Amino acid sequence: MTVVAVTPFDEWGLRLPSPLQEIADDRLHARDVRLLLKRDDLIHPDIPGNKWRKLHHNLVAATALNRRALLTFGGAYSNHLRATAAVCHRLGLASIGVVRGEERLPLNPVLAAAVRHGMTLTYLDRGSYRRKDDPALVDALRRRFGDVHLVPEGGGNEHGVRGCAELPGEIGTDFDVICCASGTGTTLAGVATALRGRQHAIGFSALKGGGFLAAEVRRLQQAYGRVTGNFSIETEFHFGGYARSTATLASFVADFRQRHGVALDPIYEAKMMYGIVALAGRGRFRPGSTLVAVLA
Ligand SMILES: *Cc1c(COP(=O)(O)O)cnc(C)c1O
After folding, report:
1. Tens digits of per-residue pLDDT, 59-113?
2. Which ligand 1 atom lies nearest to the CA of residue 54?
3. Among residues 75, 116, 130, 127, which one has the least CA distance to residue 97?
4. Residue 277 burial (10 A CB sphere; 0-12, 13-18, 19+)
5. I need a labelling partner for 278 at 20 to 30 A (CA). Which of 78, 149, 205, 246 fits?
6. What is the pTM assigned to this prediction?
7. Are the C-beta atoms of residues 115 and 89 closer than 8 Å to each other?
């Protein structure tokens, strides 16, 4: 198996820079707030946008080190596992997905897609999974799978931050606030490092108990080598926790689709957008300001 150079990324039909789309929403206009969507969800059908940004420089690093496989971690419905499998398949790299919890057969559509792209799956019970960053556990995985490039859950390392730091530079217009939905906080960490002047980033936690996120964002920025104070995190719009929803959120998504023809991802982006509209209604954004919301 040959590891190909990193240049063919351009030939994958990745849509970069991702489109910027203005949305006319009465609820924001009533507050004199302008909303632009950064459509990272349109970058590639198999590789959701922020997953691409977080994998890109990990692939560059793995290739430079001549690693033949990427090993990474995720839950059973992890977009990151699926995206990792897809990019590795394209590059002729092997991929190993360490899945939280017990094996369940038949595989759900996310893991089935990963396996179709050649990913080897292995499982860790929840207790061990929580300790997945322990050197002993990492050593055991390396002994078992060989000379792999290890990528943390959700692409959360300095390479992931670097990729996400490329996003603000693609926005060819002035803006005041940039919003993203947060899981690991890597996207927020990277985006915040690339803002200018008084620009501010807000992360909307898709997980319950998002209180850990601020420290995590700082840790990621430290790993990348640039720590900023220009971000904040909203922990109120989790709707019960990761992948949970409510009737209120579901009808918000249906209504948003009707208004704008945009189907929001229910796990992340719907919660962010609900939060944006709610905060605007509370007068949180200065009249005359421009928001960018990242769809990934
Ligand atoms: C993974 C994912 C996120 C979370 O990004 P983090 O960098 O982990 O905070 C947000 N939105 C979508 C659509 C995702 O797939």
Report:
1. 999 999 999 999 999 999 999 999 999 999 999 999 999 999 999 999 999 999 9
2. 7
3. 75
4. middle
5. 78
6. 0.95
7. no
Contacts of residues 223-228 at CB distance under 8 Å and 24 or more positions apart, as own/partner, are 223/157, 223/158, 223/161, 224/158, 224/161, 224/162, 224/165, 224/189, 224/190, 224/193, 225/158, 226/193, 228/192, 228/193, 228/195
Q: What is the pLDDT of residues 157-195, one digit of tens each?
A: 999 999 999 999 999 999 999 999 999 999 999 999 999
Q: How far is the CA of 42 from the centre of ligand 1 (A)?
A: 14
3-state secondary structure of 119: strand
Going by C-alpha positions, the residue among 223, 236, 296, 230 that lies closest to residue 271 is 236
Q: How far is the CA of 262 from the centre of ligand 1 (A)?
A: 18
